[in-house]
Amino acid sequence: MSRDMYRQRILDHYRDPQNYGTIKDPDVTYEDVNPSCGDEIQMYAVVDDEDEIVDVKFDGQGCAISQASASLLTEKVKGMTVEEVRDLETDDIREMLGIELSPVRVKCAVLGLKVLEGGIVEYEKGKGT
Amino acid sequence: MSIEKASPYNVEAVRDDFPVLGRTVDGEKLVYLDNAATSQKPQAVIDAVSEFYEGYNANVHRGLHKLSQEASEAYEGAHDKVAEFIGADGRENIIFTSNTTEGVNTVAFGWGMHHVEEGDNIVLTQMEHHSSLVPWQQVAKRNDAELRFLEVEEGLVKDGEVEEKIDEDTTAVSVIHMSNVFGTFAPVDEIIDRAHEHGARVLVDGAQSVPHASVNVNEMDADFLVTSGHKMCGPTGTGVLYGKTDALHETEPYRYGGEMIKIVEYDDATWADLPWKFEGGTPNIAGAVGLSAAVDYLEELGVENVHEHESAVTRYALELLEDDDEVTVYGPHADYDKERAGVISFNVSDAHPHDSSQLLSDQGIATRSGHHCAQPLMREMGVPATTRASFYLYNTYEEVDALVEGIETVKEVFA
Ligand SMILES: Cc1ncc(COP(=O)(O)O)c(C=O)c1O
């Protein structure tokens, strides 16, 4: 069943992630780990005056699901407002990946989103909103 | 293959004793290779627990009624059985805990906090499990002591480390007996000798060694030893803390309350005799009964035989895995001629261990992936995580073949 999980698209994003790297002086930056398996992700984003994400990058290491999900997420959120990103939920990630996930693997899949949202919370605190 | 697929006992007959081994996983035969995390339970253990609940469930120690007497006898007798199993003098040296972690905490907080002083050092190895690392970090922090680590290479403590790190300022040494990452043994005899020369006490983490190899605390001369019943065919929620009598007298209880007292006044209390002063509250009686049955089971099979069987299966697995260029094995290899046990850490080509375990699980093969509660060690090794296969008394050569075959699928997906 889970061979299904490793669809070509997932493997492609794992091997050759999009928006992989760092951003100097980002507006949003955060990192977190998945302690049960050691996946690590850092997210960096630049936000314009309209609170829209104009650039986003991630780095880190971990399993195919966590890394591919972070890569796909960076593509998805470019152009979204920080509020729209904060409204994203696990189901959106499921849909974005297009695969079935066991409860354990959901944690891998949502790590990127969790990190980005963590960064946004800090960013909004900093702005005083 | 140069290895003879032999075993000192009839493995198929042994497998029949473990009901869960007969199940399938999504239509695939279960191949359970996660024994370092917890072992499966034989019918005899499951029955012992059921018989307790069905026949003589009662609280222990205090009751005068028949059921309580029977339960107390079984519970206290389980201490005697474990004492004999690990070569301890008697029940006063055996404290039942819920797991290894609780045992380490009892020693670290009940003994360490009171004896490790400012400027002293506490010596551990680089391959400690978090459960024997983190409690000592707390002791070191609160008491301003130094933590020192015996350096490890490929699962073996480097030459000269014991001499260099353990000195006159060492008060406590806590050492993993058998590594849950590499299956290697730490040189406990050398460590204990050196520590005792300097008046330090030694805690041995026997979570992996006691289930898989014959361990004698008196011969080893350990001051404390901890282990988990659930890794040796016993129920979950069982563990053992062994202590030398004088070491236990130096140890403060860590959990205060009922069952651990002798005389209680409104403003003070005195403690029960060993070992009960460390067993505050109603204990895991059913667990103790099950653990006792587990010890019987292991003794009947012979722990030396278990070790021999696992070593042979492991060597077979290592030879196959090392033949494969895309598999990296961490720790000593098949040609390592010293004692080792049935744990193999490896990675498959570019696959993250998490993905390897997932794909293996699809084929019914249970392995574990991650840092194995040894994050600093993984950093030292330069890998984020590994996949681990760990064997026990019921694993077969055919299951090793299944693992090797399963790895082929991982290679295909991540080729
Ligand atoms: C070497 C070692 N020490 C300690 C532990 C912790 O055991 P428990 O989880 O039963 O407390 C384990 C097992 O996970 C282990 O392998």
Describe the protein in words:
- The complex is a heterodimer of chains A (129) and B (415).
- Chain A has 129 residues and is an alpha+beta fold.
- Chain A has one domain (3-127): Sufe protein. Chain: A.
- Chain A has helices spanning 8-15, 64-77, 82-86, 90-97, 103-127; strands at 28-34, 39-47, 53-61.
- Chain A has a three-stranded antiparallel sheet, covered by helices on one side.
- In chain A, α1 (8-15) crosses α2, α2 packs across α5 and α4 (90-97) crosses α5 (103-127).
- The N and C termini of chain A lie far apart (45 Å).
- Chain B is an alpha/beta fold.
- Chain B is 40% helix and 18% strand.
- Chain B contains 15 helices and 19 strands.
- A seven-stranded mixed sheet of chain B has the order 4-12-11-10-9-5-6, sandwiched between helices. A four-stranded antiparallel sheet of chain B has the order 15-16-19-18, covered by helices on one side. Chain B has a two-stranded antiparallel ribbon with strand order 1-2.
- In chain B, α13 (353-361) packs across α15.
- Classes of the chains: A alpha+beta (129), B alpha/beta (415).
- Chains A and B meet through α2 of A and α13 of B.
- Pyridoxal-5'-phosphate (PLP) binds next to α4 and α5 of chain B.
- Chain B: InterPro entries: Aminotrans_V_dom, Cys_dSase_SufS, PyrdxlP-dep_Trfase, PyrdxlP-dep_Trfase_major, PyrdxlP-dep_Trfase_small.
- Chain B: It is an enzyme of class 2 (transferase).
- Chain B: Keywords: Pyridoxal phosphate, Transferase.
- Chain B: Residues 31-403 form the Aminotransferase class V domain.
Secondary structure: elements and pairs:
The complex is a heterodimer of chains A (about 130) and B (about 425).
Chain A: H1 8-15, E1 28-34, E2 39-47, E3 53-61, H2 64-77, H3 82-86, H4 90-97, H5 103-127
Antiparallel strand pairs in A: 1-2, 2-3
Chain B: H1 11-16, E1 24-25, E2 28-29, E3 31-32, H2 43-56, H3 66-85, E4 94-97, H4 100-115, E5 121-125, H5 130-143, E6 146-150, E7 152-153, E8 156-157, H6 161-165, E9 170-176, H7 188-197, E10 201-205, H8 209-212, H9 217-220, E11 224-228, E12 239-243, H10 245-249, E13 261-264, E14 269-271, H11 285-301, H12 303-322, E15 327-330, E16 343-348, H13 353-361, E17 365-366, E18 368-370, H14 375-381, E19 386-390, H15 397-413
Parallel strand pairs in B: 3-17, 5-6, 5-9, 9-10, 10-11
Antiparallel strand pairs in B: 1-2, 4-12, 7-8, 11-12, 13-14, 15-16, 16-19, 18-19
Helix pairs in contact in B: 2-11, 3-11, 4-5, 12-15, 13-15
Bound molecules: pyridoxal-5'-phosphate.
Pyridoxal-5'-phosphate binds next to helix 4 and helix 5 of chain B.
